[in-house]
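Q: Can I borrow your eye for a moment on a structure tokenisation matter? Would you mind producing a protein record, from residues through to fold? Write it directly below this note and I will take it from there.
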Amino acid sequence: MTSVDVHQHLWTPSLVAALRARREPPFLDGWTLHLRGEPPYEVPPADHDIARRAELAADDGLGRVLVSLSAPIGVEWLPAAEARPLLDAYHEGSAALPRPFDAWAAACVREIDPKAAAKDLDHGFAGLQLPANALGDATGYARCAPLLDLLEERGLPLLVHPGPAPGGAAGPIWWPAMVPYVQQMHAAWFAFRAFGRPRHPGLRVCFALLAGLAPLHGERFAARGGDGEADGDSGVFVDTSSYGPRAVDAIVRALGAGAVVQGSDRPYAQPPLHPGFGLGGAAAYAFRITNPRRLLTGR
């Protein structure tokens, strides 16, 4: 059986060239990434060396690695005329990646175009990634509904990933990852329960970074009048990116082992040294093989 990592990032030469062709954020100046509201970030070129990354995947025992557009860059939030060249470059490069790589498609969320998303998905992408800050409330789920309808029609999953986090320029380097990213995932988790699942009963969805630990608020949710129906939702998954044994153990207690999939967020974090997170071989098998297969195929 194939071991899977559902969440990594790998910039192909076509995406790098498209980012370097821009003069307004987001853009690359050499390997310096400029984003709106954040300090310049020096990208290590080796992080996006395709051959090196394939070797790392082999060393980790992974037979399939799903890469996605780095949603915090903000491509999905650009006007469609600006987003499209970057989306095309991302899709072109990602579709041509060698094994073990597959990819999530991406879509503009500022101007929803399900026909364009359908054409991109036609190229064999595993599903669609959307930024969490596009799915944080009823308005967001209503706006993105045509994209989610498309996924349901095709039986493909959704990956919810943190989006842009402007305003972190004055804080420590870890601020975006620890505050706005987590807040976005927390909001998207509960918004899906309230607005997403009722409209999309057949949609399979994976929330990155354990949904910002939102599932651990189940007791407070119940105390404040929420129902517990979504706790047993077999179509909802969370990935493990940047978390360790304590958090994963707590999530398993809240959601069950069948809801957890390995997602490492490489190159920004590393795959776990112990894929079962201290919960044993059966958990490792579930997180890397059984659960990713159910997420990606529904079986």
Observations:
- DSSP finds eleven helices and eleven strands in the chain.
- The two ends are 14 Å apart (CA to CA).
